[in-house]
């Protein structure tokens, strides 16, 4: 006997067991169901009318619209925000920063248009006489 | 399953019920209450719950009559409501149906398809109470969805198409659930076969 035939025969036995032992007793007082259900539905009145699909459709369109707006705003603002800037856009730029004393921080800013240089010194109230600013 | 013969009359009764005719709905209840009760009873394994859920099924059907489109038979639609209600209850009980159907209450309607075809059933030599206990326990191990397909296919003899319509899922899902449910029952009840 093939394996599938054996399985089928086994299942036939199981099915017979289920049918024999999973029985449900018949309905004892069937009219009780009618009475209870009718009592409940008479209280409720006529069956409810079908709910119009408009709210669902409206929700779907609103969602799609909101999504489209978000995409458009992202496309408008995001690339602009992350665009690399050119040097000309800066007012000034650090052209040299070097300090030989460890507690001293010195930066010099150069403004191209104004032809000026600003020195920014941190870490000291004054420049010691032994140091030279070049 | 013989639903076709009554489907035209069902449709007429449904139309009247939709207009608020409770006597038409009363006729629909009388026509289908036994089948719905048996189906729920097989699934929930508790007489009181089966009775409550049968009532609930018809009340839900009344509330949703406007949504019944007539695509399937009214009975199939009722079965779907009943199956969902039974599955919900089984889930609430954490998938553990209470085994309260008494052996003494097994006087089945002679015309019912659920009556065993042969009086000499497998396992007749064993203690019937013990066999029943084992089968109820194995059945309770199934998920509510698996229980539904086993009841519809193996006990109520529905076709795959009818099952799909009655539980509202695809044919593939029905076949898959049936395969796994049978496999599990075979594992749990396999040793009973050796006794006969």
Structure, briefly:
The complex is a heterodimer of chains A (134) and B (196). Chain A is an alpha+beta fold.
Task: Characterise the protein shown here.
The complex is a heterodimer of chains A (134) and B (196). With 134 residues, chain A is α+β, with helices and mostly antiparallel strands. Chain A has a 3-stranded antiparallel sheet, with no helix packed on it. Chain B is built from 8 helices and no strands. In chain B, helix 2 packs across helix 4, helix 3 packs across helix 4 and helix 6 packs across helix 8. The longest helix of chain B is centred in the N-terminal third of the chain and has 23 residues. Chain B starts with a helix and ends with a helix. Chains A and B meet through helix 1 and helix 2 of A and helix 2, helix 3, helix 5, helix 6 and helix 8 of B.
Q: How many DSSP-defined strands of chain A?
A: 3
Annotation field: number of helices of chain B: 8
Biggest contact: A-B, 35 and 61 residues
- Compute the number of strand runs of chain B: 0
> Describe the biggest sheet of chain B?
none
Helix-and-strand structural type of chain A? alpha+beta
**Low-confidence sequence ranges of chain B:** 1-5, 102-120
Order of helices and strands of chain B: HHHHHHHH
**Roughly how much helix do the residues of chain A carry, as a percent range?**
40-55%
**Broad shape of chain A:** elongated
Order of helices and strands of chain A: HHHEEE
